[in-house]
Design a protein that fits this description.
The protein has 1 helix and 5 strands. By secondary structure, the chain is mainly beta.
C-alpha cells in the first residue's frame, strides 16, 4: 500500500488529517503572523479559511512568506 503524502513547498511529507493552520504550526509558522500566503493545488486559500480548510492526500501546498528589504 502506498503511503499517503502531501507536498509542502516542494518537499514530500507524510499526510496527516489536518487543516492549513495546523500544518503551518507543525512547520513552525504562526498562522497569525502577517505577510504569509498559502495556496493549495494552485488556489490561494483565504486566511479566514486556514483553520477550516482540511488538507487531502496528494495536495500541493505552497506557503509563501513576504520578506522586507531589497
Amino acid at each position: 500500500m502506498k503511503e499517503m503524502t502531501i507536498v509542502v513547498n516542494g518537499e514530500c511529507q507524510p499526510y496527516r488529517a489536518q487543516t492549513v493552520a495546523e500544518l503551518m504550526e507543525m512547520q513552525g509558522i504562526a498562522p497569525e503572523r502577517a505577510g504569509i500566503a498559502v495556496a493549495v493545488n494552485g488556489k490561494v486559500i483565504a486566511r479566514s479559511r486556514w483553520r477550516e480548510h482540511q488538507l487531502q492526500p496528494d495536495d500541493q501546498v505552497e506557503i509563501v512568506k513576504a520578506v522586507a528589504g531589497g
